[in-house]
Specification:
By secondary structure, this protein is mainly α. 51% of the residues lie in helices and 7% in strands. Strands 1-3-2 form a three-stranded mixed β-sheet, covered by helices on one side. The structure holds zinc ion.
Length: 195
């Protein structure tokens, strides 16, 4: 089941500060909400890291691109892949628009990977819970995207074109770019994109 990320467009309007504050609000509610409690305890006991990217690779995960005349910032993930009973969800995949380039592509990609990471924690019980999960995935996605090692690993693991648009995306290059190249980008005003 691929689910349309109709929340994406709303999430795109949030800058990092607004997104973080929504994330903190949700985290604050965890004690009173069973779904949120499960979500945050999963986050605390599991890591969105290299091991997870390797796990996805081992399961034959694919990043697919399709041309679609929609917002390039919309993405899909079959995010119940951890439930082995639902075999038709295999292999796990993420679908992105070919129109998504640079930071937008990576931001959406990491958001969708966050969905795969949470897997069947999402229970589809109610729209509110799903809405919260969208904010959480966006926060996790944007935050992890700024980790150059992880970004580089994802791009290499799935054979994706490497875009340079900020410092982490430059540092994600392997082998690392020459330092004068880095200085050039910094002089040009490149920082760390999170908004
Ligand atoms: Zn989503």
């Amino acid at each position: 089941m691929a689910l349309l990320d109709s929340w994406r467009i709303d999430l795109d309007t949030l800058n990092w500060e607004q997104l973080s504050s929504r994330f903190k609000d949700i985290k604050f509610r965890r004690r009173r909400d069973d779904f949120l409690e499960r979500t945050f305890s999963f986050m605390e006991t599991n890591q969105f890291n290299s091991a997870f990217i390797q796990e996805l690779k081992d399961k034959g995960a694919k990043i697919k691109f399709e041309y679609w005349i929609k917002e390039p910032s919309v993405g899909y993930a079959n995010f119940e892949y951890r439930n082995s009973i639902l075999r038709w969800h295999f292999p796990p995949h993420v679908k992105l628009s070919t129109r998504a380039r640079g930071y937008v592509r990576d931001k959406v990609l990491f958001h969708e990977l966050a969905h795969l990471w949470f897997g069947n924690i999402w229970n589809g019980e109610n729209v509110c819970a799903l809405n919260d999960l969208e904010v959480i995935c966006e926060y996790i996605g944007r935050d992890n995207r700024t980790n150059p090692e992880l970004l580089g690993e994802v791009l290499r693991a799935f054979n994706l074109r490497h875009y340079i648009y900020d410092i982490p995306s430059l540092d994600a290059l392997s082998p690392p770019a020459f330092s004068e190249f880095r200085d050039y980008f910094i002089k040009k005003g490149y920082t760390i994109l999170k908004d």
